[in-house]
Amino acid sequence: MLHSTPRTRLLRLLLTAAAGLAALPGNAIGAETPEAMPPYNILFLTVDAFRSDHMGCYGYARETSPRIDAFAKEEATLFRNSISHSAWTVPGVVSLLTGQYPATHGIDTRHKIMDEFFPAPLKKLSELGYTNFGYVATGDAFSNVGFNTPEEFVRPSLQMVLERYQNERFTIWYHLKTTHLPYAAKSEIRERFRRPDSPEMMQHHTNLVTGLSMIKAGATTWDPATKPTVEDLYDACVYEQDEFIGQVFEHMKHLGLWDNTIIILTSDHGEELLEHGLIGHASTTLQGTLFDEVLRIPLLIRIPGIPGGGIVESIVQPSDVIPTVFEALGLPPVPGVQGLSLLPAIAGSGPGPNRRYAFSETTPCGWQCPGNRDKTIRLKSVRSLEWKLVVRVEESTQRTTALYDLKNDPAEITDVAGANRDVVAEMLAALQAHEEANLEAAWQGIERTIAHRAQNMRLLDRGERSAEAATLCDELAMLRYVFRVQNPSVFDRRSNDWAAALGGLWSLVGNKPNYWVCEEL
After folding, report:
1. Is the peptide bond before 182 cis (omega within 30 degrees of 0)?
2. Phi-psi category of 396—alpha, beta or left, where left has phi over 0 and alpha has psi -120 to 50?
3. Of 166, 210, 259, 271, which sees the most CB atoms within 10 A?
4. CA–CA dist 153, 312 (Å, integer)
5. Residue 404 to residues 68, 385, 401, 431: CA-CA distances in angstroms?
């Protein structure tokens, strides 16, 4: 059997683009029709900055989440070791909705959007008759993920959305933010969770926590003794969010949607509450970390007809949700999806995924990163049930590492890398393999983009082709830069692939556009 290289695959796509797009990966999902699928709607509920360890069903002693606890016990399967892909919203949620790691889908910094030709799983559901609605209060980062939300919806309530689509087959994603800074739950709920022995906080600090959506690291000096007071404020928000989710569930039952809707309740990331001197997460502190308080998130999945109360101990990640949903719908896997189906574990017919490591990454300042800082610095973590390795990458070559023994030091206080060099070496090797796999998957996305662009260029006159190529130069330049930062050794091996891609592109244009980004390539 002959094995094609990325370069030969790309050249083949460029040469055959005019013949049509049917042969491109990810353009078909099979012969299924809407009538052949189980009649399940899909509801994704993501709660911003939601920590699993502050919920009763995950072992928290305070009664912060009674309605979600009942949902977990009676209706859903709970995943105890669900690890976010990121320390801020956009990469984590895009991974949830696409089944890919951030390094593969590429939406890991602000102002990036998904390539319009990306074969998003939700687009496949749309082709099969689903109406896909998505709501988040910020940004265009979720463009081209597969939603077709009507323009008339401006800050809609979830109940209103459910009423609008109750007679259609739908996928709804709704992002909730009550547990995000500021921690400003209703006064009666805050009073309920204020413990008499919690230390008083300076009024200035109380104003910051209850009034601001971000508190930059170094903006003030926190008293570690006031951590219980911060937790009181956060727990009140958890309770208020739980109250709302309970109301949504009751409304679904009233509308007759409960028995035919798959429900995924999860988070984008967790939240620091002074465990390591900060309050918030990457986008609010501008000093991103990958400690467990930021990465451990709830994941509860309900599939109609499967009894609730199951608990899965295996390591899972948000990218596992899409393949789980597709299998539950009786659909084949979507090309390019990297997650693993959790359906056998939910149905009780098998264990959770045999995954040794979870992989996460973040920029230092998430949504708020200024200038070029977001392009040159990454924090990456490799986590097993016993160990976590955190790697800081700067300017592609500078790497510093820290290793934490999660069994004996769950608070991640002491770096034990020096005393466990064999563990560090093993986990670094796992990270290298993970990055190479992501790079290969991302390269296939570049092939797809260029092939589609080539298809379009053949329909344009010469001048228009040059303008289109200049636009593509911007896309390629960003991808090239990110690849070089994330994995320079792999990038060096792909230099010929870049040359082949550009050569095919310029042959369509006639000559290289007179544009400085193109010259830099």
Report:
1. yes
2. left
3. 271
4. 37
5. 31, 11, 10, 16
Collapsing DSSP states into helix, strand and coil, what is residue 267?
Answer: strand
Give the tokens for residue 83: 């690890």
Instruction: Identify residue 273 by its one-letter amino acid code.
Output: L
Between helix 321-328 and helix 89-98 the angle, nearest 10°, is: 30
What dihedral do alpha carbons 81, 82, 88, 91 form, nearest 10°? Answer: 140
Rounded CA-CA distance 328/322 in Å is 10
User: How far apart (Å, rounded) are the C-alpha atoms in residues 328 and 100?
Assistant: 19
Residue type, 40: Y
Bigger pLDDT: 235 or 459? 235
Residue 83 to residue 406: CA distance in whole angstroms: 14
Nearest to 263 by CA among 252, 276, 279: 252
Task: Look up residue 485 and give its two tokens.
Answer: 């930062």
Would you list the DSSP string of 74-112?
A: HT-EEEEEEB-S-SSHHHHHHHHHHS--HHHH---STT-
What residues contact residue 346 under an 8 Å CB cut-off, 6+ apart?
77, 301, 303, 306, 310, 312, 324
Chain mean position to CA 484: 22
Half-sphere exposure at residue 123, Cβ-oriented, CA atoms within 13 angstroms: 19
b/e map 449-471, b = 16+ CB within 10 Å: bbbbbbbbbeeeeeeebbebbbe
367-404: burial string, b at 16+ Cβ within 10 Å, e else: bbbeeeebbbbbbbbbbbeebbbbbebeebeeeebbbb
Spatial CA neighbour of 96 closest among 213, 153, 38, 174 = 174
Spatial CB neighbours of 171, under 8 Å, sequence gap ≥ 6: 41, 42, 43, 44, 122, 125, 130, 131, 132, 133
What is the spatial distance between Cα 62 and Cα 193, in angstroms, rounded to a whole number?
9
Residue entry with tokens 């805050």: 190
User: pLDDT tens-digit profile of 17-67?
Assistant: 322 322 333 333 444 444 466 679 999 999 999 999 999 999 999 999 999
Distances (CA, A) of 316 to 96, 126, 364, 371: 12, 27, 24, 34
Give the pLDDT confidence of 370-416 residue by residue, as tens digits.
655 555 788 999 999 999 999 998 866 667 899 999 999 999 999 99
Q: What is the dihedral of CA 454, 459, 465, 470, to 10 degrees?
A: -50
